[in-house]
Amino acid sequence: MTEILLLSGLFGILSCDTVVAGQFMYSRPLIAGPLAGLYLGNPYVGFIAGLCVELIWIRIIPIGDSIPPDSTLTAVLATAAASAAVRNFGLDNLSAVALALAAAVPCGIVFKMVEIKSRSSNSKKVDKVKGNIIRGDFGSVDRETFYAVVRKFFISAAFFLIVYALVTALPASYWQILAVTGCPKTIMNFVYILCFAQLFEMFLTWK
Fold it and tell me: Which of 8, 43, 112, 177 could form an S-S bond across to 37 if both were Cys, CB 3.0 to 4.6 Å?
């Protein structure tokens, strides 16, 4: 339990890096996934999950006020769920990642809605800050920025704990699906093809 609590804290920090603080690109799936995997003792799973998530949504760019699905959550959650499946059900890495991605991608889309609500709440405080500045309270800018970072951290960490509990609560029959088909490597290769197809199609249609 302590391991997952610390991982949720790591995700909270990485989630803040997306917009509200830092923006050092540590939140990119290709970095966040391996970081989570390294912490969980399976960096290979983290790399594969991060690579797939990076390519799945590589064409979706946050321009202006548009908010894409949360790729950081998807990568970290997929890594954590896959690592748990490998440990608890004896799955091979590829099968675990494929099934974890199938469960994590919808969570990334749901977290986008949470992010929209959070940013909307933050924007409502702008008028309050403007009023404080007019009254000479220039420190209110720093305070509200700090509070926004803290809120982002705790909301992200709490959401991760909830979806991790839901994904890892999936029955053993779900995690054994690819074992029944007998072709986990073939299915994962198909996932790779779909992911890289996104990248190639983007370059082909680039103007």
Answer: 43
